Amino acid sequence: MSDARDKFFDAPAVCTVDSPVGTLLAAATTRALVSLQFTEPDTLARERDALCQRWTARCDADHPVLAQLRVELEEYFAARRRVFEVPLEYAGSDFQHRVWSLLLQIPYGQTWSYLDMAVRLGDPKALRAVGGANHTNPIAIVIPCHRVINADGALGGYGGGPWRKQILLDLEVGQQRLHL
User: Fold this and answer.
1) How high is the mean pLDDT in each 10-residue block of the chain (180 residues)?
2) pTM as predicted
3) H/E element holding 70?
């Protein structure tokens, strides 16, 4: 059984990307990056196979969009890139799109709170909804949900784990350079 998201994308290519924060699993259509997610060694093969099956994708490390992503991630982890240029395409509700678009506006090296996000979206009471949309972000790192923290300055949740969030935030404030 397919869901509505399957109709949104043409058949993507899938590849893994080694990074200082672990192996990432990426998928792209002929036009854009559609997924970038953290994986763990014990689940990588299963997640890759599921992604390939879901979108009838092929494993293709030479795919142009995925090749661009790998270069941009390498530059990002070496502290030579602050803004990603790889084209993005993702399915989601109108609210999710608004949150993900707002995430793309958080400047490199800065953080906003969930409350900041809700206020910017016009509904200061939408904290949980903002958190939920952050949690379903389909394109980790590139759509920088790691830049959202609790109003008290605590890290808050992160689908990739708090240790990854801290590494990404430290990288962006110039405390370290990471190499692939």
Assistant:
1) 44 84 90 90 73 64 88 95 95 95 96 96 94 94 96 90 94 71
2) 0.85
3) helix 64-77
Of 15, 52, 59, 145, which is the active-site residue? Answer: 145
Per the CB < 8 A criterion, the answer to whether 85 and 119 are in contact is: no
Strand order in the sheet with 58-59: 33-38, 24-28, 13-17, 58-59
Write the pLDDT tens digit of every residue in 64-90.
999 999 999 999 999 999 999 999 998
**For residues 54 and 70, what is the distance between their CA atoms, to the nearest angstrom?**
23
Class of domain 4-77: alpha beta
Q: Given the structure tokens 């991630």, which residue do they identify?
A: 73
Q: State the CATH class of domain 94-172.
A: mainly alpha
Q: What residues does each domain of the chain span?
A: 4-77, 94-172
Amino acid at 66: L
Cα gap 23→41, rounded to integer Å = 8
The amino acid occupying position 5 is: R
Handedness of CA 178, 139, 144, 108 (dihedral sign): positive
Strands (E) in 71-156, as ranges, are 112-113, 148-149
Active site residue 145: yes
